[in-house]
């Protein structure tokens, strides 16, 4: 099998995660790194034994089969479109753009080009969410009727991050809008949200929340819930419970190996994941691997496509609207 | 200590539960049973070694200190008011009345009489919910920020029951509106609900749902969630998780003693509660016991009063409104 | 159904437990209490609304169908034999006698009388051990190959108790020798034991241990383990795991309802049983109920008989021998 | 830091595991592979991009700093001694030799050479056993009083493997003899064992067992238990519970991420480890890493040394003796 030649754009925290995976994957050759900050690109390129180049070179080089876009969010849309027009396959970090309108326009421009594109909803590749998807597909618990999702980050991000994140709906909840669509094979038709800035009241100045609860109506009749927090006092907590007619399946708050300590009439289970990254870390590689298999024309059922990116953003947009209007928002109102 | 003399009105399923508890409690003397169906009253009276009488006698007899009202819902309000006016202490099954207006009017008529009254929110006396209340009161996890409640009955009630139940909000969810107020010591200010008739589509004809998801805004800033189902494929499931600033406490899906069976790469925990009654059964006695202590002028912190009954009904009313208007409903809109 | 008339001999701690059960059971009439200390008998009789009498009257009265012997251990053998000779059914607390020889002699004297007798191995009636027995009988995990039993009391008994208890093997481990025989339907053929006085070194003066580990060979080829402690730092711990060819079933360390507390990267399960009595309390009633059904000529599979008492004691005796000889001891060496 | 140059001897199953780790470790250069079967060596060398050579070259080459011996057991002792005499550091798979006498002689010959040696007790590097060791060292549960260990392989190895394995004590239990010494910092003084060939009766012909239970006396007063099976019906099961004066700590039957499925009054936890290798796989790398840190003169507390290898074998030898003599065997009887 011919190795796929990747260029990576963006050498920040998540770019470095992708770089390590690209360097390790047996079906990938990491040929070039680029970053708006060329020093940052050179440093990482040195560690990865590949070369640093201009962003434009990364997109246009004949030596490149695929571009992985992990740069700052405002640059995603333009780079995605340019890379697709240059005939490259694209792995684009989420979101496509903070503006749903822009994301939709890019999708329109790009879809007819028939390039291979995936959007960074890596949590589809969490090993227990994958098991849940298989179990649902096999019909073991019947039609999904009530989906309960929990996404609770343990450590508050810095205010600077939150200021440019697009808000809790577009930045954090969006992963679960995608997971919900993927797991059920169904679409959200309406959403209602309530939120508050409890952990960091300062963010309410720019209209953001750090604690939120959401309910959703699905097209095939089911109902869903999601709650999000930006910090907990106990570690990272991510769960998806799907109740069907015939039972309930839970992809639970996985944890690394830990002891049980019995003391003083209690049993203490040690070892909850400290933060989101320690839980989801492995999914980036799995997502990359699925994308490479797709590039090699294998059938890959779970790969999030460009329209998945748009659709999840539309739900986030409706959630934002519901937060301010205090009424449930039909998704088709924002598309 | 002088035994308190009780009359029981209502000899149906829940009346029989109360009869057994009244007969067993060392501080109670069950002096009389009454029922609209006098044969049913006589039969139960025979088993309980007490006498059967007219409803009016139960309320007015000089031999009676307290009346336990477990008759059909439409009779609650009138009996409650009559018993209070007759100077009896009253334990009234929930709801006070299916109409919030009637419930509020009864409360107004009765409160100034200073009779001792409790409303049937027995789930406050679930032993693990009680532990949760203590833990919250001690401040161990700090201010409640996100409360997640699950109430899933395992077996569909018959259509005949559902037709007169007042609907899922007033009949099932109402217990959790009360638990939420009690646990947090806070008030719900706004609620949004979505629901569907998935298990028994026929009930949608009279506007009811059997599966619902709700989100609530609390006065002190916290947020809450609740989901309800009328049947599951796996047993009875009742959970309350409270996330505070410093941690999370879960009063979980308790189960009776059961085995763990390890087979074929799985661990099977046997013994989930088959239905709601097997889980909450003991709480009726605990509630009665608290009421008796109250009658003996002890301080009893957790006893649900008449206004608790009204308040929980108001939340249920707002939830019903939200289901139809598809917008969040402030509680003060229905009071 | 005619109520069975019981006399209770022994009004100490465990006698009071039995008294309460005898007073509550619908198929029982508690007619008389007796105790070497007649004041103690009178006091309890007052509470139970029955009369106090002489021990000899309890055994010989025509008004008595069955005698429950809960007196001090040294009196068990004589009372058991006398009651049986007087034609009474007998429920005798374990052990029959601290001397295996005496126990065997009593059994020989009594067995041909065909009286109905049960020995106090109440833990057979623990609800999860019962479930385990059913599961084994159904063959769900196949032939038992490796049985692991844990019996760890939480609070050290006083030295005075330990001095007359007969030692850890005859007093504590003996319940599990009986459970092992009952669950497997098999016999122990050989046992090896090691022990130490770690929690209360003083008991080594009279040859006792408070911490012990035992291994056993079963007649049909399986192997078993048992460990015992007289105190833990964490609560009461009782478990039985049976591994068969096709899987493993665990009757685990059951606990009363309790919260889960998530804090600081740990999950704290609250509510382990504080002591042995809070776990096994209910089994005394279940055992009594089975005995009453037996008196009414129902078939009762799990009732421990006189020979079960002898057999478990024989294993305990062999364990004591193994502790001192430091070699495994065949059971037929002590019988 | 200078990379340590390793030669690997033995290219069978476990040799291939080591080869992959040696090729990946950043502090290691895998310079040479050797195997009695030179074709097998060449094939693996091709995959690992290193060269194949003679066993003698692997031991004597100036290009080699350390030798990892993963060849057939009968060759371990000779290769270990030769490599140590040639001045190489050595990582030797367990056991040193099936004969304790030979193992002791090699140790005597080699120890004064002051070469750096580790023996393959990789399970010390299991992440939860490591946590248990830390917790014990911190004194959180006080002095170890009762240690319970379970080692149950899921799939029967082929008869051919069992015939040359040295038996369950020397091949399987030996890891736990080492873990026991390491965790407690204490020595076993006496052991008693019972065993049976239940899963594969054929092995009893050469005196082996596939199911065994063992009890041990520790020098500082504690007691220990171990059970071993060669097959289960439910997956791989490895647990270590240490009870101290102040509590109990359990390094439990870890499992990979899996779903919880609620169905039909049961909760099914999916995803027990299918076999021993999927559980312990990662420990080989951790052990190698600790060894490399040791080669770089870091202090590495947990590394099993040559005498650890001898000591664990001595316990295994005493267990074998106890199986046949049916009496407990002091360890100093076999050394």
UniProtKB/TrEMBL annotation, chains A, B, C, D:
Gene Ontology CC annotation, any one: cytoplasm
Signal peptide: 1-19
Lineage top rank: taxon: Bacteria
Record SUPFAM superfamilies: Glyceraldehyde-3-phosphate dehydrogenase-like, C-terminal domain, NAD(P)-binding Rossmann-fold domains
InterPro entries: Gfo/Idh/MocA-like_OxRdtase_N, GFO_IDH_MocA-like_dom, NAD(P)-bd_dom_sf
Annotated GO MF terms: nucleotide binding; oxidoreductase activity
Pfam families per UniProt: GFO_IDH_MocA, GFO_IDH_MocA_C3
Gene3D superfamilies given in the database record: Dihydrodipicolinate Reductase, domain 2, NAD(P)-binding Rossmann-like Domain
GO BP of this protein: NADPH regeneration
Domain Gfo/Idh/MocA-like oxidoreductase N-terminal: 5-121
PANTHER family cross-referenced by the UniProt entry: BINDING ROSSMANN FOLD OXIDOREDUCTASE, PUTATIVE (AFU_ORTHOLOGUE AFUA_2G10240)-RELATED, NAD(P)-BINDING ROSSMANN-FOLD SUPERFAMILY PROTEIN-RELATED
Protein name: Oxidoreductase
């Amino acid at each position: 099998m011919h190795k796929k030649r990747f260029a990576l754009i963006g050498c920040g925290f998540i770019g470095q995660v992708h770089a390590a995976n690209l360097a390790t994957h047996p079906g990938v050759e990491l040929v070039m790194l680029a970053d708006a900050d060329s020093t940052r690109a050179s440093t990482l390129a040195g560690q990865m034994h590949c070369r640093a180049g201009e962003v434009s070179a990364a997109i246009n080089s004949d030596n490149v089969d695929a571009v992985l876009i992990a740069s700052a969010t405002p640059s995603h849309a333009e780079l995605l479109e340019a890379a697709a027009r240059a005939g490259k396959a694209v792995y684009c970090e989420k979101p496509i753009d903070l503006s749903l309108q822009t994301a939709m326009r890019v999708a329109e421009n790009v879809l007819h080009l028939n390039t291979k594109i995936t959007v960074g909803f890596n949590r589809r590749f969490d090993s227990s969410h994958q098991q849940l998807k298989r179990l649902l597909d096999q019909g073991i618990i019947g039609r999904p009727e009530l989906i309960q999702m929990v996404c609770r980050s343990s450590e508050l991000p810095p205010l600077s991050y939150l200021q440019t994140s697009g808000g809790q709906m577009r930045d954090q909840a969006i992963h679960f809008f995608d997971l919900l669509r993927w797991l059920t094979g169904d679409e959200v038709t309406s959403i209602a949200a309530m939120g508050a800035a409890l952990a960091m009241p300062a963010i309410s100045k720019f209209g953001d929340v750090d604690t939120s609860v959401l309910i959703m109506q699905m097209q095939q009749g089911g109902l869903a819930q999601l709650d999000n927090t930006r910090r907990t006092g106990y570690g990272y907590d991510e769960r998806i419970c799907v109740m069907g007619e015939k039972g309930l399946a839970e992809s639970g708050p996985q944890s690394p190996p830990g002891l049980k300590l019995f003391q003083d009439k209690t049993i203490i289970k040690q070892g909850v994941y400290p933060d989101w990254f320690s839980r989801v870390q492995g999914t980036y590689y799995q997502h990359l691997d699925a994308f490479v298999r797709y590039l090699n024309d294998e059938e890959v059922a779970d790969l999030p496509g460009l329209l998945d990116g748009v659709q999840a953003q539309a739900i986030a947009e409706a959630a934002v609207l519901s937060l301010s209007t205090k009424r449930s928002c039909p998704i088709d109102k924002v598309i």
